[in-house]
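Revision sheet: structure tokens.
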Amino acid sequence: MTSTASQPIINTDLVLLDVDAGGDKQTVIGRLVNRLADAGRTHDSDGLIAAAMAREEQSATGLPGG
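Predicted:
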């Protein structure tokens, strides 16, 4: 994993456009986390998914219609 101190928070390699991310929260979050893992932005995909799902349980962060 590379140091994030010298990296922008987001870049074009992390953006997904015109994709079917899935129909449920678990699938969507899993695909986003996989993208972060592929870019070397996390070494704990399972922990990140669990944290995101726990946050979703508090209050949904998604927007209707995408």
